Amino acid sequence: xxxxxNPAGLRKFLRPLIWVLGMGIxxxxxxxxxxxxxxxxxxxxxxxxxxxxxxxxxTFDESDIPHIKANSQADALFALGYLHASERSWQLExxxxxxxxxxxxxxxxxxxxxxxxxxxxxxxxxxxxxxDRYPVSAKRLLQAYADxxxxxxxxxxxxxxxxxxxxxxxxxxxxPTDSVAWMLMMAYDLGGNWNKELQRLExxxxxxxxxxxxxxxxx
Length: 219
Fold this sequence. Notes:
Helix content is 64%, strand content 4%. It is mainly alpha-helical.
């Protein structure tokens, strides 16, 4: 049985298609290489950054653990915020949005219930009220850390962590109250036994401290 196909015509049709696919793959590889090169964290060298009062030295040991040497607490905290943003920008952004109840702005309907719960707790409002009552020295240190975070995010340029591109977002402004808000979130997370603590508080109205804290045993 003879084939009625036209191999020459098929090759003529496939040739430009293969060429276009090849060019597309090459373009994607080029973009990927440029992105990976620009996004690669390179802590070595000297940088001039506004917000630092004096020179700060950051070194990484054999385990890639950073060590900060600074002449003041403010400069040390600025450098810490800079490092956090350089290495964990997306994690900071998620922390900021979780504590403020603003996940749904970038993640959609699925996180509305989480935002509603956090806003009902009033985490960010409580953080702002606490910050207002902090001594001036503590406010300055929290501001130094926030300035470091914002400087670290700024130096990332266009080569942001891939999560920003997937959600169509950018690093938001980190404020001193964002740090306080996340401290409150950590306190909430570590308070998983709050119901037992309330039970012990109620028992303490009728029992001694030793009796209230005694382990419950069977008959």
